[in-house]
Write a structure and sequence with these properties.
The protein is 38% helix and 21% strand. By secondary structure, the protein is of the alpha+beta class. The strands form three sheets. A five-stranded antiparallel sheet has the order 4-10-9-8-7. A three-stranded antiparallel sheet has the order 2-1-3. The chain has a two-stranded antiparallel sheet with strand order 5-6. Helix 4 packs across helix 5. The chain starts with 21 loop residues before the first strand and ends with a helix. 18% of the residues are buried.
């Protein structure tokens, strides 16, 4: 609808596939897609969707699907703005800041890798998958996880973010203004490590950083098993 125009609800001629109309506003002012993409500062983004049906209690399926996707996109956009703001906190990030950041990374489009873990068990003289604890090796696997966490804690490229998560920054990354968000999470119940990367330069940069981090984590896992071998 144009600004100032009033819509009177009625049965649309093509009620099974009613047309969709959108209007976006930034700080309550109408804007175009190009203006949204060019945004350089924090703002309140809202979207309005037309509704064509007699009852106001339920949206038609075509509207509901689009509105859901639009809501997800807006939530992702808001999370990206939050992550951008926190990048500039750099080394001054607190434990509470990390909670906010990790929650928002999960809401954005990011790249993730799942790395299964295995630990050397001396009594069986072999590597055992960490996702399959039994009565005979459960304590050994717990010891393996403890050594792994200690090695991750003392690694030069990690900063502890939570009880089971670490922020990862390779040697070339600035500590004052973070160039990207990269977290590794040690998942003991699934016997794996999850790598998540959100990069302001997009999907390709996020994938490249995830692969770099994967290799760093593999080195730590190898170091852990060397210590377990002693």
């Amino acid at each position: 609808l144009e600004e100032g125009e009033t819509h009177i609800p009625h049965h649309h001629l093509d009620s099974d596939n009613p047309p969709l109309f959108f209007r976006f506003t930034l700080d309550q002012k109408p804007v175009s897609f190009n203006e949204i993409l060019a945004l350089k500062k924090s703002a309140t983004l809202a979207a309005q969707v037309s509704v064509f049906l007699a009852s106001e209690k339920k949206l038609p399926q075509s509207h509901a699907s689009v509105v859901s996707k639009l809501q997800n996109a807006l939530n992702s956009f808001a999370s990206e703005q939050t992550l951008e703001k926190f990048r500039f906190l750099g080394r001054s990030l607190t434990e509470e800041d990390f909670k906010v950041v990790m929650r928002n990374v999960a809401k954005t489009k990011h790249h993730s890798l799942d790395m299964p873990l295995e630990f050397f068990i001396s009594r069986s003289n072999s590597l055992i998958p960490a996702d399959n604890p039994t009565g005979s090796n459960e304590n050994d696997l717990d010891h393996g996880f403890s050594i792994l966490m200690e090695e991750l804690d003392r690694a030069a490229f990690t900063v502890r973010a939570s009880q089971e998560s670490f922020l990862v920054l390779d040697d070339s990354a600035s500590r004052d203004v973070l160039p990207y968000w990269c977290f590794i999470q040690v998942r003991k119940p699934t016997g794996s490590i999850i790598v998540r990367v959100h990069h302001p330069h997009g999907d390709v940069a996020a994938e490249e950083q995830a692969e770099t981090t994967q290799q760093l984590v593999r080195n730590i896992c190898n170091r852990t098993n060397q210590l377990l071998l002693l």
